[in-house]
Amino acid sequence: MSKVFAVALASMHQDMSRLDRIALNLANASTPGYRREVVAASPFVAALDVAGATAPASGSAAQEGEEAAPAGALTVLSDTRPGTIRVTGQPLDLALTGDGFFEIATESGPAYTRQGSFRVDERGRLVTARGHAVMGKNGDVYLTTRTPVIDASGNVTEPDATTGPAAGAPGTPIAQLKVVRFEDARSLQRLGDGLVAGGPGATVLEDGHGQIRQGALENANVSSMHEMVQLVETMRHFESMQKIVQGYDEMLGTAIRRLGDLS
């Protein structure tokens, strides 16, 4: 394949990946706690190297086991900037104002989320909208009322309780929510339904690092206007690459015809 075609094809593949992420971001613009995805591409010179524009020196050979990175290699990262806070007034709605995540128990093991729209299931457990248990530092969090009080550090009390441990001591915490921070939250793998898998450098936040706000939800950090601008720019860039391919193809065709006339 021509070097020009290879570079143009790699660039068009990048544009298609960006369009996929822009569409995903726009679809989740109203999803609480959603963090937009961004596509990071390899430098343009890397695409030229892989396309063969820079040939290896004569007699040189790649080390055994070494492989060239694919042209137009992309990395999908999460935008870790927090979203704005929207007050709901619901006692089971929780927003994180820092960079932590709520730990959730799923069938496949621990997962993490910033979507704090919780509820109480039929067993009295604090769960997500999908029914996954929200973890405290000592396991599942059980409530006897729908009106708990949760402070910034995640301490849960039930001043209105008439049964259970909180009935005898209304101001005593019955549980503390588990909030976890990761060294590089941008690279966490998404699992769907607002969940992400754990990553390296996990740290459970201790008292004094309060970042929970009760009666509120974190909005998605997606700006619809910004995404639309990115959409238009990406489409224009894709069209430019198409024109480059078409122009180069026409130039080759003209050159071949002229060579034929000279023969």
Task: Report what the structure shows.
The chain has 263 residues and is α+β, with helices and mostly antiparallel strands. The chain folds into two domains: 107 residues, no CATH class; 134 residues, no CATH class. Helix content is 29%, strand content 23%. Strands 5, 6, 9, 10, 14, 15, 16 and 17 form an eight-stranded antiparallel sheet that branches. Strands 11-12-13 form a three-stranded antiparallel sheet, with no helix packed on it. Helix 1 packs antiparallel against helix 4. The longest helix is centred in the C-terminal third of the chain and has 39 residues. The protein is elongated, with a radius of gyration of 26 Å. The two termini are 25 Å apart. About 7% of the residues have low confidence.
Short characterization:
By secondary structure, the protein is of the alpha+beta class.
Ordered list of secondary-structure elements with their pairings:
Elements: H1 3-27, E1 37-41, H2 44-51, E2 74-78, E3 85-87, E4 94-96, E5 101-106, E6 109-113, E7 119-120, E8 126-127, E9 133-136, E10 139-140, E11 149-150, E12 155-157, H3 165-168, E13 175-176, E14 179-181, E15 190-192, E16 195-196, E17 203-204, E18 212-214, E19 216-218, H4 224-262
Antiparallel strand pairs: 1-2, 3-19, 4-18, 5-6, 5-9, 5-14, 6-16, 7-8, 9-10, 11-12, 12-13, 14-17, 15-16
Helix pairs in contact: 1-4
